[in-house]
Amino acid sequence: MNTFQPRRLRVALLVYRGNPRSGGQGVYVRHLSGGLVALGHDVTVFSGRPYPELPPGVGLEKIPSLDLYRDADPFRVPRSREIEGVDDLLELATMWSGGFGEPRTFARRARAALRVRLGEFDLVHDDQGLGRGLLGMLDDGWPVIASIHHPVTIDRAIDLAEASNEQRRRSIRRWYGFSSMQARVAQRLDRILTVSEASKRDIAREMGVDPSRIGVVPIGVDQSVYAPTPGVDPIPGRVMTTASADVALKGLVHLLEAVAKLRTERPEVHLVIIGQLRPGSAAQRTIDRLGLERAVEFVTGPTDAEIAHRYAEAAVAVVPSIYEGFSLPAIEAMACGTPLVATTGGALPEVVGADGTTARLVPPGDPSALAAALDAVLADPEASRAMGERGRRRVAERFRWSVTAAATVAEYERLLGSPSC
């Protein structure tokens, strides 16, 4: 009989931005840390600003920074009294030169915080930062594992393809200058986690990481919140999407063009976007160009419960991304039983399932195909509800945070050289 008892692990979980309302890092850290604690492990999250919302039992170690990209004042100029050391100067100088320095400076600060706590943790788990400070942590004696949801070089390539002139392309290359650092760090770590087989292939190709050192652990969805809402009927013509970052990768402009096409035949069609409209952005210009001001609503900073209620009101949800390493919004919509239209970009087919069975799939970057798929869903509510129910069952069977946490612990044990639990 196997008498192995899994040990209680002490995990230092690093996240350079823990924003609970924008982007996936804060969501990932919140639910993974809660799942690990539920399994009996100890977790302390070391986070840069903005700080995450964490479940009971999870510790938080705040790693202060200049927070130069805060939503209320992006690219701000800090007061001189805020500059307290080399890391602050490096963070500011990188911004002034057009780069993004947070992954690098956060890892330096986190290393300093952990150096005085040697022996308090069994391992360090970095989420998507991959700053050079992680290599210093290896030198300090820490076992280090890192999550890479997808290679940021793919974001860079899409942004470069969308750039209208050489000046813009130079600016993009400067901004993504940290990507070469991330690849060098990833190549040195003993273990990498990612969220899909598609991302595993892309990390190996784009970042030069040996595939044998990459473990695939899909993320989950909180099915106590993201679930069908009794008594709420879909609003006719309502299309819903999540665009927490207004970047070319997310394909929002293509969705806006598809909505404009749809409205020529279906004037009741309107779009609800979970996210914030950035003045002067490509989305703003597209809305103005297509005259969609009255047909598009942005919802900023909703709670999970509010998002789930919005999904219940939607006739169809959309993931129009050019590329996704996984797509949390896709499985959130499916968990609510909302019919889904998604592209075939990246891992989306792997996550959402077969075209016409659990979702409708279209090529990325094709507004006409997107409009046709949305029209097909809206034209046959009964068949669409059945597809939404099949999608809900797929998510219920495959994507739970408890499963994510258990599989992550198995990867920790693999890193540490012990039997997995």
Specify Rg, calculated over alpha carbons.
22 Å
Alpha-carbon distance between the termini? Answer: 15 Å
Report the helical percentage: 40-55%
CATH topology of the largest domain, what is it called?
A: Rossmann fold
Please state the overall shape, judged from the principal axes of the Cα atoms: globular
Query: H/E order of the elements?
Result: EHEEHHEHEHHHEHEEHEHEHEHEHEHHH
Number of domains: 2
What does the average pLDDT come to? Answer: 94
**Helices and strands: which structural class?**
alpha/beta
Superfamily (CATH H level) name of the largest domain:
Glycogen Phosphorylase B
**What is the topology, as strand order, of the major beta sheet?**
3-2-1-4-5-6-7
Tell me what you see in this structure.
With 421 residues, this protein is α/β, with parallel strands linked by helices. The chain has two domains: 228 residues, 3-Layer(aba) Sandwich (Rossmann fold); 161 residues, 3-Layer(aba) Sandwich (Rossmann fold). The protein is 43% helix and 14% strand. It has 16 helices and 13 strands. The strands form two sheets. The protein has a seven-stranded parallel sheet, with helices on both faces. Helix 1 crosses helix 16. The longest helix has 18 residues. The radius of gyration is 22 Å and the shape is globular. The two termini are 15 Å apart. 48% of the residues are buried. The model has no long low-confidence stretch (mean pLDDT 94).
